[in-house]
Design goal:
Number of helices: 5
Strand order of the largest sheet: 2-4-3-1-5
Helix content: 25-40%
Number of domains: 1
Largest sheet: 5 strands, mixed
Shape: globular
Number of strands: 5
Order of helices and strands: EHEHHHEEHE
Distance between the termini: 28 Å
Length: 136
């Protein structure tokens, strides 16, 4: 399920022209908030699966004790069902962020208006676009 040496560009219908930091509207963090926080200071630390499962755990507020006790089983149960990939992430669909996966499948986040984004858009061996938000 992890991508290797792949760059996911922002969705065709993304209106953001710069990378926007998602803001929580309530006390509960959104998927975009969680994914942004995981990736902004930890480039190439996590795989896509790590991000998806980590987002699930944080979004559902799974207690640390339960995660320590049942983490491996919970992860296996989580991935026993099909999960949407990062091409469906609101970061790439709405907030103007692209995802680059290195040769080991570790992911980093790049703002659409950054020089790194433009460089990766030309250099990555495989390119995919994030899923559109609308069906036009």
């Amino acid at each position: 399920m992890n991508y290797l040496d792949t760059f996911i560009t922002v969705a065709e219908d993304c209106s953001a022209t710069t990378g926007i930091v998602p803001q929580a509207k309530t006390d509960k963090k959104t998927v975009a908030n969680i994914q942004y926080e995981m990736l902004k200071d930890h480039p190439y630390k996590y795989t896509q699966e790590d991000v998806l499962f980590g987002t699930f755990v944080r979004h559902k507020a799974v207690p640390a004790a339960e995660l320590k006790k049942r983490g491996a089983a919970m992860r296996q149960e989580f991935f026993a069902k099909d999960q949407p990939c990062l091409r469906t992430s609101p970061l790439a669909r709405t907030y103007g962020w692209g995802f680059h996966f290195d040769k080991e499948g570790k992911v980093a986040l790049y703002a659409v208006d950054s020089s790194e984004y433009k460089k990766l858009a030309k250099q990555a061996s495989k390119h995919l676009k994030a899923m559109r938000s609308s069906r036009k």
